[in-house]
Specification:
The chain has 87 residues and is mostly beta strands. It is built from one helix and seven strands.
């Protein structure tokens, strides 16, 4: 399950793990104009772990989800697909 909220300066998505048997803590993804943060409570330390990604890193993450192993560099907008820089 997930929720989406549109705040004044960001869009907030909360991912709720409803899986069985082991449930992970909720993940909160907050998309600002200049970055995206991903936060999740670490129940062992009782602290929130936070990762901040640039817009470019988010683009690369989404592209990487559909690619095989390798080293890639995204081409500028208007070019066709990512380039495989390793092979």
């Amino acid at each position: 399950m997930f929720t989406i909220e549109h705040d004044f300066d960001a869009t907030v998505i909360t991912l709720v793990d409803e899986g069985d048997p082991h449930l992970q803590e909720d993940v909160t993804v907050t998309a600002f104009e200049d970055c995206v943060t991903i936060e999740q409570l670490d129940p062992q330390s009782d602290r929130v772990a936070k990762v901040t990604l640039s817009p470019r890193q988010v683009q690369e993450l989404f592209a990487a989800l559909d690619l095989p192993e390798g080293v890639y560099r995204l081409r500028p907008a208007g070019s066709s697909g990512p380039s495989d820089a390793a092979n």
